[in-house]
Amino acid sequence: MSLQNEIKSYFDRAAALVYDGPSVIHPIITLNALKNIIGDNRNNPSQKLLDEMAKVVESYPERIDDQAILDRVAKNGLGQTVFISDLEDACQNGNPLEMEYEAAHLQWISENGLGVLEALIEVALQDFDRLGTFSYHLQRANVFNQEIKNTWTYTRCLLKEIVKSPLPEPHAKVEIDYKLKVSSKKNQVTALASAGRLWEGDYIRIKGIRRELSYWLSSASVEMGTGGKIMNGLEDYVKKGGNFFIEMAEGLISNLNHEAKIIQLEALRYFVKNSIKSDLPVISKHLEAL
Questions:
Q1: Helix axes 206-219, 128-143, angle to 10 degrees
Q2: Cα(3)–Cα(25) distance, integer angstroms
């Protein structure tokens, strides 16, 4: 099995997991973070990190009724007109059965189901603190080595997370001058990295996605860090890549409850790749604290 196919098999399994924990550390976030870090050395991928991906998906039971829901909706008939707005209303009302029915109906009549998933991501971003990072990583896992026939599994995975808590109302657009910022606050790093990548993403529904992001970014109080030393090896990574983050990840996975640290490590990797040199000291502080 190729590296891409192996990783995709873990993504597909993670999207179908029965998971009752917090959305901010959903297994699919950990897996996509590990995939990105592994990508720093594709010629000699880290077996330790690949083994960790396998371990993550083996830790939870798997849903077995995804296809049954699609089949039931088709059996009831697909002639009735259904709109994305019906799905959005169902999500706003928090009715899980109605949400799944509307989403499954749209899945059948859409060309590939990707528009349904994007519409749900826009809805999910109304609760960015809870669902922003999850939505970003789920979408990236879906498009990696994409198989259109599996989109429903990812759509249902998102539905399962949305329904865990009532959604706030959609937010009005806030005019902002977006700039990538590295916060000195540990608890903002991952969310800001997800917001930045969603903001710069190539989405059909980018206007709605940026509308919700603009609200969240305008209300996030980002404290910029200054001073300090740059971690040994970090500047070399910036210049020529290498195993810097791979080695850090391999060290972290031996610790209990390391998922949040792996997720933050990957977010810091994003900032290293997209920030200016003056941001490296505060990034170093975060890395050293992991």
A1: 140
A2: 24
At 216, is the secondary structure helix, strand, or coil?
helix
Nearest-angstrom CA–CA distance, 192 and 220: 9
Among residues 229, 225, 223, which one has the least CA distance to residue 284? 229
Please report the sign of the dihedral spanned by the C-alpha atoms of residue 167, residue 120, residue 124, residue 164. positive
| Confidence band of 184 (pLDDT split at 50, 70, 90) | confident
pLDDT of residue 79: 63
Phi, psi of 255 (to 5 degrees): -90, 150
pLDDT for 149 beyond 90: no
Reduced to 3 states (helix: H, G, I; strand: E, B; else coil), residue 17 is strand
Nearest alpha-carbon partner for 141 in 157, 162, 126: 157
CA distance between the termini of the chain = 33
Contact between 264 and 286 under an 8 Å Cβ cutoff? The reply is yes
Q: How far apart are CA 154 and CA 156, in angstroms?
A: 5
Give the contacts of 33 (CB within 8 A, at least 6 positions apart): 137, 262, 263, 265, 266, 267
C-alpha distance from residue 200 to each of 119, 162, 178, 193, 206 (Å): 17, 23, 10, 11, 9
* Residue in the structure block whose two tokens are 């999910």: 124
How far is residue 222's CA from residue 107's CA, in Å, rounded to a whole number?
39
Taking every pair of C-alpha atoms in the chain, what is the biggest distance, in angstroms? Answer: 64
pLDDT digits (tens, 9 = 90+) for 59-118: 999 999 999 999 998 887 766 767 899 999 999 999 999 999 999 989 888 767 788 999
